[in-house]
Amino acid sequence: MTEAIPWIEKYRPKTLKEVINQEAIVTALTNAIRTGNIPHMLFTGPPGVGKTATAHAFARDLYGERYIEDGHFLEINASDERGIDVIREKVKNFARTIPMAGPGFKILLLDESDMLTAEAQHAFRRVMEQFSTTCRFILAANYFNRIIEPIQSRCAVFRFKPIEEDGVRQMVERVARNEGLEVDEQVVKELYRISEGDLRKVLNLLQTASVYSKRITVDLLYRVAGLAAGIEARRMMELALSGNLTEARKLLWQALYVDGVSEREIVSSMYSELFYLSIPETEKAKLFSLLGEVDYRISQGATPEVQIMTVLSALHALSGKRS
Ligand SMILES: Nc1ncnc2c1ncn2[C@@H]1O[C@H](COP(=O)(O)OP(=O)(O)O)[C@@H](O)[C@H]1O
Ligand SMILES: [Mg+2]
Fold first, then answer.
1. Could you tell me which residues are beta bridge partners of residue 139?
2. Structure confidence at residue 1 (pLDDT)
3. What is the pTM of this model?
4. How far apart are CA 175 and CA 169, in angstroms?
5. What is Dmax (Cα atoms) for the chain?
6. How distant, in Å, are the alpha carbons of 102, 142, 242, 281, 299 from that of 248?
7. Which pLDDT does position 136 carry in this prediction?
8. Confidence band (pLDDT; 50, 70, 90) for 3?
9. CA distance 316 to 6
10. Per-residue CA distances from 247 to 219, 270, 305, 316, 318 (Å)
């Protein structure tokens, strides 16, 4: 049996030296620590490439192991909070005292900051200005262009790259050595392909696969990958169908941008799961044809989130009509 602790936590880099595949960023941050010249920063890039992990590793290298307990570092996740007022209060409480030891300022990480509306971002920018003497801000976001310009221009921007095949190999080797897994080269290649350079996804797939066997084969990997997307697709469809579109959308967002499930997998899982939904056959037929259109439009470059939402909305419209 594997332990209860998720591998994405177990294999979170403890120091900048352990951050994989983001050499330019690691060099810049290491220099910033050496010189003590630390600006506000904006970390952008796709899910699972180390934005959150690097912010933590940076703070730990700067302040030491007790960077959180000693009050130097606070993480706020914009997608968990109910609004800018709650966030402002938290920042205020955190940043109003100047730390006794250390470089004279604290670090606040606002994670998933592109979840804030433009209006909330403007309010946050004022908070940044208000506390910039005692606090440096790191904002993490999947999409650079969802961050308002006044914040972009106040931050040093770090663009995180998708993890390359060598980076995936490095992580797989780290885990395999430590967990006693047997992983052949073809599995590394497939993990790279399926994950699209998302290490969160690599770790989750490996951990799930390892529950079945210490010998990870390509077949096992496929089974596990299909299973994960299927469960998420079913849950979001059930939520939409039970009238809870907001929760369904959250789950979709989580799947696409946090768990790094690919849109193709979600759409094809929705296709398989649709058979099992308890709705009238005629409605099912309409949904299949909608799903076909969505699949096509995504292949032509339409925004996956928007497209998949049309299916969830159609399901939502059926809530109350279950057979
Ligand atoms: N560049 C990286 N180097 C080492 N581990 C990484 C890297 N990127 C992601 N990981 C692993 O994946 C997990 C999730 O990464 P995270 O930093 O939360 O991704 P992001 O914030 O970019 O979505 C981390 O806890 C770590 O285990
Ligand atoms: Mg993150």
1. 42, 110
2. 47
3. 0.79
4. 10
5. 68
6. 44, 20, 10, 22, 23
7. 96
8. low
9. 33
10. 33, 17, 14, 11, 16
Q: How far apart (Å, rounded) are the C-alpha atoms in residues 128 and 14?
A: 27
Ligand 1: does its nearest atom lie under 6 Å from the Cβ of 53?
yes
Would you say the CB of residue 110 lies under 6 angstroms from ligand 1?
Answer: no
Among 148, 149, 117, 152, CA closest to 137: 152
What pLDDT score was predicted for residue 322? Answer: 58
Handedness of CA 296, 299, 302, 308 (dihedral sign): positive
For 149-177, write each residue's pLDDT tens digit: 999 999 999 999 999 999 999 999 999 99
DSSP for 127-190, written as a single string = HHHHTTTTEEEEEEES-GGGS-HHHHTTSEEEEPPPPPHHHHHHHHHHHHHHHT-EE-HHHHHH
Residue identifier of the C-alpha nearest atom 25 of ligand 1:
12
> Residue 204: CB within 6 Å of ligand 1?
no
| Any atom of ligand 1 within 6 Å of the Cβ of 136 | no
Residue 12 CB less than 6 A away from ligand 1: yes
Amino acid at 243: G
Per-residue pLDDT tens over the stretch 106-157: 999 999 999 999 999 999 999 999 999 999 999 999 999 999 999 999 999 9
Q: Choose the residue to mutate in 15, 23, 200, 205 for probing ligand 1, maximizing ligand atoms within 8 Å of C-beta.
A: 200
**CB neighbour list of residue 34: distance below 8 Å, 6 or more residues apart:** none
pLDDT tens by residue, 71-96: 999 999 998 877 899 999 999 999 98
What the chain holds in terms of domains, given with CATH numbers, is 22-159 (3.40.50.300), 165-227 (1.10.8.60), 231-317 (1.20.272.10)
Tens digits of residue pLDDT in 224-275: 887 778 888 999 999 999 999 999 999 998 888 877 778 888 998 999 889 8
Residue 217, phi then psi, degrees to nearest 5: -105, 165
For residue 240, the Cα-to-chain-centroid distance in whole angstroms is 22
